[in-house]
Amino acid sequence: MKVFSKEKQVSYAGEQRFAYRLLALFLAAIMVCGMCQGIQAQAADGDFLIEDGVLLEYRGTKSKLTIPKTVTEIGERAFVGATGLKSVTIPKNVTRIGNYAFSGCSKLKEITIPKTVTEIGAAAFSETVWLKNKQKKNPLVVVNKILVDGTTAKGTVTVPKSVTKIAGEAFAANKKITGVTIPKGVTAIGDKAFSGCSKLKSIRINKTVITVGSEVFSGTSWLKAQQKKNPLVVVNKVLVDGRTAKGTTTIPKGVAYIADAAFLECTKLKSVTLPSGLKKIGDNAFSGCSSLKSITVPKGVKEIGKKTFADCSSLKTVKLPEGMTKIGQSAFSHCKIEKLTIPKTVTELGDSAFLGCALLKSVAIPEGVTKIGNHTFEGCTALKTITLPKSLTVIELGAFSECKGLESITIPEGVSVIPNSVFSECRNLKTVVVSEGVTTIEDYAFSFCTALESITIPESVTMIGESAFYVGNEAMVIYGAEGSAAQSYAEAQGYSFEVQ
Q1: Cα(42)–Cα(59) distance, rounded to whole angstroms?
Q2: Tens digit of pLDDT for each residue in 432-451?
Q3: How many other β-carbons are positioned within 10 Å of the β-carbon of residue 286?
Q4: Which of the four CATH numbers 1.10.3810.10, 3.80.10.10, 3.90.1170.50, 3.40.50.11030 does domain 48-129 have?
Q5: What is the rounded radius of gyration, in angstroms, for the C-alpha atoms of the chain?
């Protein structure tokens, strides 16, 4: 990226020297961080890809290894493909092992797991020799009070009293279990824990279970029997399934939590009333409910999760309560919302939260919002005006790209970086005002804004990407201070510049 700074004329050679110095400083910083903290990828060992304490990938071929002490979490599928691995020692700093972390490590016989591990994802040890040996001793494999596998169990199963969690997919596709008793002490059941257990008819669940993942009982005889009694299947104040619901539905009082994917692709659901005592709506809870037209979220709900109402292609009216703090990733993507008031208590709008809401004409972003995520309003083609709050500090990549109705925008002073593609293809955008305090305008930030007539850039902006205003509009005027980076950019790119 070619950068324009305050100097009006900067030679290419000078830019190269400057770039090399920056690169040298950057590499030096990486080495220092790596030596001191072991955070950077491959710092502790070239075989490991580590970021912020998360082991993302093992790239080596060793048969025996000890995971670096800097690791606090083993990521999803981190060791998939390590078919030669026979022994692994997990350090005491690790608290979580992700889904399928060691899945398919067919020769893995020895795993040392410290007591610090309190979360183990779905099928984390599937197809390992270690798991097969454990299953021979006991079909219910428990690690640190987590029941990680019961796929070889038969008949009626009683979960041990020592267990506090049942991991995702722990019993998945086990067609030989017919009943299960979950005792007092178990508080959480992971995603798809009993999914596909087609002969499972009897389930006794203690009241201590308060967290139930997505599709936990899908494909079981038990769930089918419950659905015949009532399309809304509730377990301990958790609505675990509502996929057979139709028309107008009222969720009963007492339900505090709607589980992940509870109404996923329930295409016959037209209207739903949520109870006043509701505290949480899970990820994907109403995703794909294509006939749902309106939703009112009660006061107790603090967050709209990932894809909660995504692809609700008939959803036009949404009422959100004060007290809510976050609208999550893709929460309302591809809905038909026309107007939206975001509660004053919300501080974060997640990635793609309103992606593809092509009918959205008006949205009020309140003071208090500090972050707008990647692609949050991308493709909101009917959106003509939007006011960004003074509290805003971060706007991420593509947040308003393809908002083809947008005509003007003012970037508030709290935002330091206008990122890549943030307003790309806003083809009716005519006026941009960048407030004092912004320091960087990245490449393609306003690319293909073909109607852009004027942009005001303050002295605080010291770096402008060469293609920041790749617009194809030679009549665009840049306003700024004499001797500023804005003037250097305008002169180099052939745009008109006026001192302001």
Answers
A1: 10
A2: 999 999 999 999 999 999 99
A3: 26
A4: 3.80.10.10
A5: 27
